[in-house]
Here is the input.
Amino acid sequence: MFLTAQWKAKPSRVTSPVIPYTSLRETRDILQAENEELKNQIAGLQKQINQTQGLLKKRRVVSSRTLEQLERLKTEVALTPVVGSGVKIVLADSPTGPASEETIVHAADLRDLMNLLWGSGATAISINNQRISAFTSIDCIVNTILINNVRLTSPFEIKAIGNQNQMLKNLKDEGILSDLHRRKNLGLIFEVSKSNRLELPAYNGSYNISFAEVVP
Here is the structure.
C-alpha cells in the first residue's frame, strides 16, 4: 500500500526551472526600473532645493550665515558635487586565467578600501560615479556588487578627495591592505595613482532616517 501511494503521489519539485527564473528576472527588472525612477525623483527634489536656496539668498529672507551652515551640512552628507585633488584607485578582477576567490573583487575588498580612505583623511569618495555617504551599503549579490542600490561589476574606479599624501602612503603600504597586495601577484588588478583634479557627483540614494521623540 505504501509503495502504491508513493507511486501515485505527484512530485512537489518544480518541473520547469525556467518559470521561476523568468519570474525572478522580471521582478529584478521591475525593481531596477522603480529604483531609477526614485533616483530621478531625488535628483529633481535636490534641484528644487538648490533653486529655493538661491531665491532665499537673493531675497535675503535667511541670513547668509544660515545658508553657509546649510551648505556645509549638505557637503558633509554628500548632497553636493565636489571637485578637488586626491587619489584614484582601479580595482578589478584578473583578466587572465580562471576566476577564483583570490582573483575577483569582493564587496569586503571595497569596504576595506573605504575604511582605509576615510581613516587616511578622505573627505569625499565615489565608486564608479556612485557617491559614498554614511548611508551607503556595499553588498554582494551573486556576481555583482550593490552600491546605493545600483548593481556594479568589475572594474571598479574609486575616487577619493582629501589628504592626498596620507592616502597614497597608506594605500601603497603592503602591511595595511596586505591581502589585496598579496592577490596582485595572483592577477588581481589593484592600481593607485594621484590626481590633482577629481570630480565627484552628489549622492543620489535614499536616506532612511528614523526620528525618535526626545522627552526631557
In short: Confidence is low (pLDDT under 50) at residues 1-7, 9-19, 209-216.
